[in-house]
Amino acid sequence: MFLRNAWYVAAWDREVSKDKPFARTLLNEPIVFYRQSDGTPVALEDRCCHRHAQLSLGVVVGDNLRCGYHGLKFDAAGACVEIPGQDRIPPDARIRSYPVIERWNWIWIWMGDPAKADESLIPDWWWTTHPEWACTRPDPFHMRCHYQLINDNVLDVTHLAYVHSSSIGSAAINEFPMTTERVDGKVRMTRWIIDRPAPPMYQGFGQFNANVDRWQIVEHQAPCFSVNFAGCADTGTGAREGNRSGHRIDLMALSAPTPESENTTHYFFCFVRGFNLQDATTEKMFAEDFVRVFREDVVVIEAQQRRMESLPGAPQISIAVDAAPMAARRMLDEMIEKDVRTSR
């Protein structure tokens, strides 16, 4: 079951244009997107109310969308405003329209009751457009897995030591404990790795001359928004105590996996860094090397999904590293239960 009264990332801003409709299925619902003449994004049910033709196969006409089968035209609210060959438009000639907001270079969609759509519930990911940070915006992955497996993966950073050993992983991760807390409606996982060598990719970015103090802090907001605050600084320079001076690198991975169905997901993500902002080589490393790191997760998670489907009901255990993922799942379950209860 999905949390309906919530925002989800529907598309990158660059995916939706004024030139033609764009189709995407979200939470098992087929949706068509387009932009009005002033650039405002629109999201409608991808179904003509006449004979169920896909509106995404139609054309954008000014501020409206015309069905490519019999020419019915719909406005941004989902109302049919024209039927070729007849003057009268039946009062029930309409389709569902979804609230959408364009923010942080993403188009966000509200999948539940439009009256409950609250813009303040969109994560405050201001770094993505701030001039003191550089943001790399890869295309989304289409993954064959349940979206919560991606949430689990982001909140469990111990897998870096094994899945990403040649890039951002380090055996030192497991030498240091993590803490998990639930504060301000979020689950936060924190781990500090003190006085250890920088992992290969971080060393490439920072060219550290000695050991570093490294942080792994993940903040998760239901249903599917996570920020992985990462980086390292010369050891002993007070990074853990909040001192931001000295030789260091700061980066973030922002994750927003949106369910397509129970077993498929559109994985939106981006990388934000606070160093080498205008450096083309660094940008290429994030756009290519870091994306390859994320593809290593795809292999593991999709295989995990396949095995879960082939062995339904097989027993599994939980270990210490599951504390944050389990806390996030409990939080989401509570929100879904409340959402269902208040929607009756």
Core attributes:
about 350 residues, alpha+beta, 2 domains, 5 helices, about 30% strand, elongated
Q: What's a quick, concise take on this entry?
A:
By secondary structure, the chain is α+β, with helices and mostly antiparallel strands. Helix content is 21%, strand content 32%. Strands 12, 13, 14, 15, 16, 17, 18 and 19 form an 8-stranded antiparallel beta sheet that branches. The chain has a 4-stranded antiparallel beta sheet with strand order 2-3-4-9, with no helix packed on it. Strands 5-6-7-8 form a 4-stranded antiparallel beta sheet, with no helix packed on it.
The secondary structure category is alpha+beta
Q: CATH homologous superfamily of the largest domain, by name?
A: Naphthalene 1,2-dioxygenase Alpha Subunit, Chain A, domain 1
The fraction of residues assigned to DSSP E strands is 25-35%
- Please, how many helices? 5
Count of domains: 2
SSE series: EEEEEEEEEEEEEHHEEHEEEEHH
Mean of pLDDT: 95
How many strand segments? 19
- Enumerate the spans where pLDDT stays under 50 for 5 or more consecutive residues: none
Using the alpha-carbon principal axes, give the shape: elongated
Level-2 CATH architecture of the largest domain: Alpha-Beta Complex
In the CATH hierarchy, the third-tier topology of the largest domain is known as: Naphthalene 1,2-dioxygenase Alpha Subunit, Chain A, domain 1
Q: In angstroms, what separates the terminal alpha carbons?
A: 15 Å
The major sheet is characterized as: 8 strands, antiparallel
For the record, the CATH class of the largest domain is Alpha Beta
The percent of residues in helical segments reads: 10-25%
Q: Taking Cα atoms only, what radius of gyration do you get, to the nearest Å?
A: 23 Å
